[in-house]
Design a protein that fits this description.
The protein has 3 domains: about 55 residues, no CATH class; about 170 residues, Reverse transcriptase/Diguanylate cyclase domain (Alpha-Beta Plaits); about 40 residues, no CATH class. The chain has 12 helices and 11 strands. The strands form 3 sheets. Strands 1, 2, 3, 4, 5, 6 and 11 form a 7-stranded mixed sheet that branches. The chain has a two-stranded antiparallel sheet with strand order 7-10. The protein is globular.
């Protein structure tokens, strides 16, 4: 079958191969080195708290934790950057594939922290990250496309800010299908409230933005640049557009919500907006929130 119609397509994680680093480190154990040797190696590698590194296993675990964010199981972007740039060079600049950058920022993390506490909110972040990966796997298998991807946590942002880069042929429709699925769907996780210790199952959603860098466009944009410059230029430009689209989408939805708050006249309509208000949290101006609660109180009194 062709790439476009194959039903056996398996998306490949470009960063998964780094698990061999941990396995290789574990092989050090066969040399029966003294525990202080691992402490010394950890100090040379500038690991935090090297005195706690006293075995090959603890050395490998510490190395893994420096690469990956345990809250999402995604690699930190700064650690994955050179690998992604290498894939851009191979697959896009010197190949025939397109590149897509998608960015997401989880909604209502502050609200989750306030209601459930930080540890429970961290569970929501991990569930959301795993859910995104599942959606990409599902769309890839349904489309029959051969996709290579890399999930990362965005540099300089919280754990709830994530990015996925994926590579393949003719990815525009695939990208739209993926974005439509993740932006209209939601993950769910059972969390325990901080004060009353009750179980609730909130829906976990996020804002999304994406940009498709077509192969022919990539080659046009990088004409005259050195081979060393090309991958970085494409990655930064695509990431910036994806982020701007994500923020633009959130701003549009926020403005739409504010407009609804200011124009509804029924208590049922106003109450129906409460979930969206909780999602946006502190993004909604205080004056709008004050109006919302005042209007809700007024309409409640009228209906009683």
């Amino acid at each position: 079958m062709t790439e476009e119609t194959s039903t056996d397509a398996q998306p490949k994680d470009l960063l998964n191969d780094l698990s061999v680093v941990g396995n290789a480190l574990l092989q050090i154990a066969q040399f029966n080195l003294p525990s202080n040797a691992f402490t010394f190696l950890a100090a040379l590698a500038h690991y935090p708290n090297p005195s706690t590194i006293v075995s090959a296993e603890s050395f490998a675990r510490a190395g893994h934790d420096r690469l990956y964010n345990p809250k999402t199981e995604f690699m930190f972007e700064k650690n994955a950057r050179n690998i992604i740039l290498g894939e851009i060079s191979k697959r896009v600049i010197n190949g025939t594939e397109d590149m897509v950058i998608c960015e997401t920022d989880m909604n209502n993390l502050k609200g989750l922290n306030d209601k459930f506490g930080e540890l429970e909110a961290d569970k929501a972040i991990l569930v959301y990250a795993r859910w995104i990966r599942m959606q990409l796997d599902e769309i890839s298998k349904e489309s029959g496309k051969e996709i290579n991807y890399a999930f990362v946590n965005v540099d300089g942002e919280g754990s709830d800010s994530m990015k996925v880069a994926f590579f393949g042929s003719n990815l525009y429709q695939f990208s739209r299908d993926f974005i439509n699925q993740v932006s209209t769907g939601h993950a769910q996780v059972e969390l325990k409230t901080k004060i009353q210790n009750e179980l609730e199952t909130p829906e976990i959603t996020g804002g999304w933005g994406f940009y498709v860098m077509k192969n022919e466009d990539a080659k046009k944009l990088t004409q005259g640049l050195s081979e060393e410059q090309k991958p970085g230029i494409l990655y930064v430009a695509s990431s910036q557009v994806a982020k701007d689209r994500m923020l633009g989408s959130k701003s549009f939805n926020e403005a739409n919500l504010i407009n609804q708050i200011l124009n509804v006249e029924q208590i049922s309509e106003l109450s129906a907006l409460e979930e969206q208000i909780n999602e946006f949290g502190e993004r909604i101006p205080k004056v709008i929130l004050d109006y919302y609660f005042s209007k809700k109180k007024e309409l409640t009194e009228k209906s009683s």
